[in-house]
Amino acid sequence: MTGRFNGQTMVVTGAAAGISKAIAVMAASQGAKVVVADMNEEGGQATVDEIKAAGGQAEFHKVNLTSRDSIAAFGQSVLGSVGTVDILVNGAGWDLMERFLDSKPETWDTVLAINFTGPVHLCHLFAPGMVEKGKGKIVSIASDAGRIGSPSEAVYSGAKGGIISFTKTLARELARSNVNVNCVSPGPTRTALYYAQTESVQQNLAKVIPMRRVGEPDEVAMAVLFFASAESDYITGQTLSVSGGMSMVC
User: Fold this and answer.
1) CA atoms of 232 and 183, how far apart (whole Å)
2) Would you say the pTM of this structure is higher than 0.90?
3) Is residue 248 in some structural domain?
4) Is the distance from CB of 209 to CB of 188 less than 8 angstroms?
5) To 5 degrees, how large is the angle CA 140–CA 172–CA 118?
6) Is residue 2 part of a domain?
7) Is 65 helix (H, G, I), strand (E, B) or coil?
8) 162: helix, coil or strand?
9) How far apart are alpha carbons 164 and 141 in whole angstroms?
C-alpha cells in the first residue's frame, strides 16, 4: 500500500505514543505528510525523527486539548505550515481509572476535554477547509467503553459515547461535501493505559475477549487508515470495533 496517501496531509493527535504513534508512522510509510500533534514535545519529536529516518515526511506541532487557546494556536500553526488538512485523526486520549463515586470534577473536566471537546474543536477548525476543497476524512478514536460501558471509566465511557454520536451527526452534515466522518472503537490494546493495570487485570482482560488476547496498536492503526483512505469513500457515520470480538453490538 505504498503511496496510498501520496500528496495528502494528515493531522494525528496524541502521536507521541501508543495507537496514535502507530497511525502516524504507518501513514507516513504510505506517503502521507504527517502533522504529529501532542503535549509531549520530546515524544512527539521522537515520532517525527522515526518517520524521517524511514524516508517519510512529518513535523511536530504542540497542542494541549484542555486549552482552547492552545487549540486555536495549534490550528493557526498547522494551517499556516501545511495549508488545508486532508485527513484529521483524533487519536489523543486519556483516562484515570477509578470508581465514579471516588472521582473528582477536575478529573472529569480533563477527561472530557481530551476525549470529547478537544476533538470537537479540532473538527471545527479543520472541517471547513475540507468542505471548501470538496473532499476530506475525519477519523476519531472512540472506545468500546463508549459502546458497552466499562467499570471504573464512567466519564471516559460517556466521552467516548459522545464521540460516537458526534461522529454520526457530523457525518450527516458533511456528506454532501464528500467529507467522510467515521470512528474506530478499540477494545483493550497494548498501550500505556493497559500496562498501568496490574498483571491480574491484564490477564482478566484477555479472558473476556473471544480471541483470548488484547489488541496491538498496529491493528487499530490499520482500521483507522482504512477509514482515512479512498477505500472507504462510500462509508460514513460508522463505528468499527477493533476488539477481538469483545463487543458485538448492532
Assistant:
1) 12
2) yes
3) no
4) yes
5) 35
6) no
7) coil
8) helix
9) 9
Q: In 3-state terms, what secondary structure has residue 60?
A: strand
Closest CA to 140 of 154, 155, 151, 126: 126
CATH number at residue 147: 3.40.50.720
| Distances from the Cα of 214 to the Cα of 1, 137, 196, 224, angstroms | 26, 28, 14, 17
Each residue's pLDDT tens digit, 128-138: 999 999 999 99
Check if the beta carbon of residue 138 is closer than 8 Å to that of residue 168: no
Question: Are the C-beta atoms of 15 and 44 separated by less than 8 Å?
Answer: yes
Domain count, the chain: 1
Cα separation of 130 and 171, whole Å?
13
Phi, then psi, of 19 in degrees rounded to 5: -60, -45
Q: Is the dihedral of CA 139, 164, 208, 197 positive or negative?
A: positive
**Residue 239: what pLDDT?**
96
Angle separating helix axes 41-53 and 18-29, nearest 10 degrees: 30
Give the residue numbers spanning the domain of 119. Answer: 9-234
Yes or no: say if 36 and 15 are a contact pair by the CB < 8 Å rule: yes
pLDDT in tens, 38-96: 999 999 999 999 999 999 999 999 999 999 999 999 999 999 999 999 999 999 999 99
Q: Give the three-class secondary structure for 24.
A: helix
Give the separation between CA 243 and CA 207, rounded to whole angstroms.
12
Q: CA-to-CA distance for 7 and 9, rounded, in angstroms?
A: 7
Specify if 242 maps to a domain.
no
Question: Is residue 27 in a domain?
Answer: yes
What's 215's DSSP letter?
A: B
Catalytic annotation, residues: 156
